[in-house]
Amino acid sequence: MEYPSQLLTHAVDEFAKLPGVGRKTALRLVLHLLRQEPARALQLGESLIRLRNEVKYCKVCHNISDSDICSICGNPQRDASTICVVENVKEVMVIEATRQFGGLYHVLGGLISPMDGIGPQQLQIDSLVERIRRSQQPVSAKNQPIQEVILALSTTMEGDTTNFYIFRKLAEFSDLKITTLARGVAVGDEIEYADEITLGKSILNRTLFTDSFAKK
Amino acid sequence: MEYPSQLLTHAVDEFAKLPGVGRKTALRLVLHLLRQEPARALQLGESLIRLRNEVKYCKVCHNISDSDICSICGNPQRDASTICVVENVKEVMVIEATRQFGGLYHVLGGLISPMDGIGPQQLQIDSLVERIRRSQQPVSAKNQPIQEVILALSTTMEGDTTNFYIFRKLAEFSDLKITTLARGVAVGDEIEYADEITLGKSILNRTLFTDSFAKK
Question: CATH assignment of A6-54?
């Protein structure tokens, strides 16, 4: 389909580069913006430009942040001895939403994936090792050594590869506890329909009935 | 869900105002843009701002245009005696894509809809009447009088209301031919599944078999 204006064509082209947005949807969105008050399109445009130009990443955990140290790392009430390693910023938000984790995070920025040309060097793995090493050298009394690393990556080929790579990298820290998320039947799921591997894991890693009570 | 950055929150908020884009999709799109090279987000942002600040509407037909007169109205090869009245810019594109119409357009900018507070005054109906009147006063030899108006609006309550309003407004032009789109069974559709009203119309407005040949 031909568009009557270069400006329109350009805006549709740029929208259509977003994942899951085809040219028809892009046109619909752009025409919608043209029908709204001008501020709507200008605010969307400016928010994207500002985000891209001014976004910062926390120097400690690499989460998106408005300052050099993110609000989680900068919160003295959080337990600095436990680090949850996640793939991306999205996982931080999802885990935060559970309100069940009081430690800090470490955002890898992806998973090891030779197919996509992503090796350990592109990820924040070295900075994780360095972070743990520095925490265990007591510079001041305030410095809290990292005692546990929770590997919270997806159970995919890439997730498993990355887990194993990090696990080996962290072998030098003999006192460090390395844990992973519990796998089991989801809350609310019927046992009958659980897949075999998940059900198997949830039997092997069964918990005390009284514990399942207490955690609610 | 809480976002770790004001900039991120703001961008998600703006994206989520688009129709059919919820907060989850908005977050996915924004995080996608952050993973891409910076130019991607900047270009999208700038194209929206430029579109909104610089977009023009054709002074004759009110289609989106890069100049004061759109490329259709400015094309001397098109038949200026036939005007197709459409609801919006999108319909111009769709009809142009058929390559079956060689006349000009008139974009109303909506349909009469008392429920949404849209009356005839908000639409380009007076400018249509004025356009026809002016074309029929031969100022120069070049001036071509408008002889036919095709009402190509949707068959909804609002479309019918608008059709009827325009029809009455154009009653003053005694020589003007007012037509509407043919309604009938869609090409490729099975007769068995056509709805009664459409099938009824397609029987009443049946065409010569030889004509259906020639138009292919």
Answer: 1.10.8.420
Question: What is d(CA B48, CA A137) in angstroms, rounded to the nearest whole number?
Answer: 51
CATH of A78-181, one of 3.40.1360.10, 3.40.50.300, 1.20.1050.10, 3.20.20.30: 3.40.1360.10
Closest residue to B51, CB basis, from A2, A8, A93: A8
| Domain residue spans of chain A | 6-54, 78-181
* Mean pLDDT calculated for residue range B123-137: 92
pTM over 0.90: no
Under an 8 A CB cutoff, do B51 and A33 touch? yes
Structure tokens at B143: 């001036």
Query: Which of B119, B88, B133, B81 is CA-nearest to residue B106?
Result: B88
**Cβ A63 vs Cβ A124: under 8 Å:** no
Q: What is the pLDDT of residue B179?
A: 92
| Global ipTM | 0.79
Q: Mutate which of A27, A44, A56 to disrupt the B interface (most B C-beta within 10 Å)? A: A44
pLDDT of residue A137: 81
> Could you report the per-residue pLDDT of A129-163, keeping only the tens digit for each?
999 999 888 666 567 899 999 999 998 999 999 99
Q: Is A3 on the interface with B (CB under 8 A)?
A: yes
